[in-house]
Every structure is written in C-alpha cells, then in structure tokens.
Amino acid sequence: MPKIKKSPNVNKPQRYLLSSVHQALLDCGLANMVRLAHRAFTRTRPEDVHLYRTAETEGRIGWGTARLPKGIRIYAIGDMHGCDALVMRMIDLIRLDIRQNGGDQECVVIGLGDYIDRGDASAALLGHLADLSSSSDFRFIAIKGNHEDLFIGFLEDPDEDLGWLEMGGMETLWSFGVRFPAGARRPRLRELRDAFVARMPPHVPVFLQNLRTHVEFGDFFFSHAGARPGIALVNQNAHDLMWYRFNGRDPDTDFGKLLVHGHTPVRTPEFRANRVNIDTGAYATGRLTCLVLQGQDRRIIEVASDGSTRIQQVGVPA
Description:
This protein has two domains: about 1-45 and about 145-200, no CATH class; about 50-145 and about 210-318, Metallo-dependent phosphatases (Purple Acid Phosphatase, chain A, domain 2, 4-Layer Sandwich), CATH 3.60.21.10. It has helices at about 20-25, 30-35, 45-50, 85-100, 120-130, 145-155, 165-175, 185-200, 205-210, 240-245, 280-285, and strands at about 70-75, 105-110, 140, 215, 220-225, 260, 270, 275, 285-295, 295-305, 310-315. It is α/β, with parallel strands linked by helices and about 325 residues long. The protein is globular.
C-alpha cells in the first residue's frame, strides 16, 4: 500500500493518518476502514463551504439581522463529550419538536464537535450519532472538534500525541473496553493504540470520514471553535476553526456571518454581536444546550442530568 505523505504546509493537528495506522489496521484486517477515514481528516471539501445562500444583506450581519433560507430549521447542539444519556434526551426532544412544529420545514441537526473524551460514554455516543445519518426526521451534520483532531493524532502517532490521553482520551479508550497499562511508557502507547484499533467498530471511521470543519446556512456559520478575528471566513484554516479560543479581549469583529460555535465552556449560552457560544460544559455541569433557528425564531433547549428540561425564547441582545 502506498505511503500517505504528510504535507509540509499543514499544521500538526491537521495531518492525514500516516502509514503506521494503515499497517495497524491491516494487521487487524480493517484496511477498508482507514481507506474510508483518512481522506476526510484535514481538508475542507467543497460541500462544506456553502450549502445555502441567501441574498446579500446590506450592513453588518449579527444576531438581529442574520437569517436562514426559507423552509430551513436548524438545531445546533453544543459540546457533548461522551454524555450519551444527555444527547439522546436532546435528540428525543428535537424529534418531538419536529413532530409538533416542523410542518414542511427541512430540519437539520448540527453537532458542533467534541463528541468524545471526558465523559464516560464516548463509545455508545459515537454509535448513536452514527445512526443519526439514517434518520428520517432530520438531516444530521457533524462538525469536527479539537478532541476529534487529537484522537486522529493519537491514531497517527501515539508516541507524539500523548496529549489526547491527557485531555480525556483515556475515558474514551475505557468506554471501548481498552485499559491503559499501569506504568505504561511511550513505547507501549503503540500497543495501546493497536488494542483500540482492534476493537474499533466499523462506524467509527465512517463517522470520522463525514466530519466537516464547518458548514454555512444563510447568514449563519457553524464551526467548533468559531473563527479567528481579522481573517475572512473564506480564508480561515481548519486549525483555527477547531482550536481558536475566544477571550474577553476579542473585538466583536464583523465576519459577514453570525458564528455559532462551542469549544469554550460557559455557564450559560453566550450571545455576542457576531457570535453565539453554546458550549455549557455538559460533562462537568450536567447541562447540554441546543440552539434552534428558524426565520426570526430563536430558542434554547437545555437538558440537565437531574432530569430537568428548559426551553426558552431568545431575543436580540441589546
């Protein structure tokens, strides 16, 4: 099998799988899996860029002016981090909302990335998310988060990408039945990676294949981390879309679209003039948030680990 070369112009978190993973999968009889998975891990595909466009809007695009195309309803879900029970409750609420209010709308559910790590049910969650691709109630689009990026790096070179284990990857391995050997040293990390590959169900590389760095609907731009201020959205690189971290000093840059993102945990959804952050830290807080968009309608659906549910209309920030 030909070696997959690493592009010298691509940052480390954006690399393709290297041949070592191909060999590991070959040893496990899973070569077809990696052929499905390797080509999707880095580059933006044409269909990632503009699924729908509306007429150009004069002036700044922000929370009060951003519009979806007619006939589209979006459900964007924040960082999930292995919280399978919360996510499945949210999906049930979304299906109920579609039945009650969907009408003839095209409904799209967007996961904003970070499906794995930290929580204790990443394996179950990946299986359930993979099943959503065949849902008859809505179309499911999965955005790639930085934790998926780290996971791919571990598969590519476990000796170099130990950072994934230190950021919640051990919980993901445990959920698949792989245990970290006591006192493991770097040479044994490859054994750990190979043990995971041997247990990896077929839906995992297929799910990874379909991850997107971002997606756009009308005046809304969806990505895991948002985007780097000062750079046009068309020129944003994949690393920033997965890894950039907003802070209190960032200006409310006009991106030409309203960003909807996660990645930076907040106690409650954060509404800014140019972006909305809906990562409410589900694995730590027990609260998972979904933003519903349709026309001028904006709602928040929140499910909590104590069994409670909150649905709230959201107005335009002052």
